[in-house]
Amino acid sequence: MPKPHVLQIGSYPDWDQTPLDQAFHMHRYFEAADKLAFLADVGASVQAIATRGDLGATAQMINACPNLKMISVYGVGYDGVDMALCRARGIQVTNTPDVLNGDCADLGVAMMLCLARGMIGAEAWGRDGTWAAKGSYPLQRRVWGQKVGILGMGRIGQDVANRLSGFGMQIAYSARGVKDVPYSYIPDPVALAEWSDFLMVTVIANADTRHVVNGDVLRALGPHGMLINISRAANIDEAALLDALEQRKIAGAALDVFEGEPKLNPRFLALNNVLLQPHHASGTYETRQAMGKLMRDNLTAHFAGAPLLTPVE
Ligand code: 8YV
Questions:
Q1: Residues 127 and 268 in one domain
Q2: How many CA atoms lie within 13 A of 246 on its CB side?
Q3: What phi, psi does 78 have (nearest 5°)?
Q4: In this predicted model, what pLDDT tens digit does every residue of 35-52 receive, in sequence order?
Q5: Is 54 in the pocket of ligand 1 (CB under 6 A)?
Q6: 100 CA to middle of ligand 1, Å?
Q7: Is residue 162 part of a domain?
Q8: Most buried one in 107, 153, 168, 252, CB count within 10 A?
Q9: Exposed/middle/buried for 308, CB within 10 Å: 0-12, 13-18, 19+?
Q10: How many domains would you assign to the chain?
Q11: What is the number of the ligand 1 atom nearest to the C-alpha of 52?
């Protein structure tokens, strides 16, 4: 039987690439020097797209593939996929939810601890001889027992809250509605920020949540407040955040996602009150293997005419 044709937007680890190549005819968009010519060449043959959460699938890619029926995303976030176009064309979209919750929560908590306790600076203090020359490291901020506001009490937000309960933190959250969780519901993000010592953003990115963390939220978080973002850059007004960090209107930010990533706004690099991470919240062997399997299983189910495992809506 001929192999189904799949447009592959970005690279995958070998443990995914090998089985993908065995089962499908993979057209590697990311390796093409001339992307437009490549799409014009292979577009008509493409039946499905395999992409990543950080890459998505644009209208240009989708429009180049008139026979496209399905998009399989390696990642929980599908904000990079042109969903309006997929709905209009009846293209089904799958993602990889749940398998990455624990890792994303782990990294969010680690980022919060690392920022609050100044661990990057502390590492340098020990290594470069400052400890011996100047003595003890400057005092830092306590985490346990403090107030954490979680913006978005979805699957990842709940895993973060479970972990932080163990730290004796007071926990409140904003979401579209009250959830069945034992934490205080503060629907307005400004009010949540005002209440919080730490504001952890785990909310899904869509048109409704764009720049949900704006200047007002940052002002409410205040000069002792710290922001942690493990969701999407679009959830934060990055220009307002940079102003707030530069002017010390908030105490600090720990960020795993950035506008225009993997390039960072150079203003971030000049700051000493930020912890910058290269979008790797799901980046463990265990989770990436589970994500890859789910992404491949969705493709397999589609071509077998079986129900998709994790359709997005
Ligand atoms: C990316 C992510 O998929 O799950 C998401 O939404 O953003 C990540 O897990 C990751 O960068 C894979 O390349």
A1: yes
A2: 11
A3: -125, 25
A4: 999 999 999 999 999 999
A5: yes
A6: 9
A7: yes
A8: 153
A9: middle
A10: 2
A11: 3
